[in-house]
Amino acid sequence: MKYIxxxxxxxxxxxxxxYEGFGRAVKHINVDKKYIYKTFKSENVYKRIKxxxxxxxxxxxxxxxxxxxxxxxxxxxEYFDNVLTKSNKPFDYxxxxxxxxxxxxxxxxxxNDYRVKGPGHxxxxxxxxxxxxxxxxxxxxxxxxxxxxxxxxxL
Length: 155
Hints:
By secondary structure, this protein is α+β, with helices and mostly antiparallel strands. It has helices at 2-22, 43-55, 93-106, 148-154, and strands at 26-31, 35-40, 66-69, 74-78, 122-125, 128-131. The strands form two sheets. The chain has a four-stranded antiparallel sheet, covered by helices on one side. Strands 5-6 form a two-stranded antiparallel ribbon.
């Protein structure tokens, strides 16, 4: 049992190292059982996410709840440690992913970073899919990772 906790710890360290190493906007990540704390490098990106959250994201049921610390540029976000994969996808995953994509696009926005592989941006809680990581949210489609059909095929 002790070895299982060591392995889980190593996986989490690798995940966070990967996440921190490739995140252009995030300087530091801290995770506990309920929340992920993201400290941002750029005040502009932090403010953009906060503005999107206050104006629209908070209304969507697939967005984790967020709180903002303007002094430290930290976003505290609900954390779900169950990443969406082929083996755990809910029976209605196509419907849920299509709903998420349509909701974002109907608002005139693009997520621009849909991913299911290392680290994924779709998480599960009680059979419901949540989308995280909104630094790529934009009014312009500028990345090839904005195709929900590719995500559906990967699952």
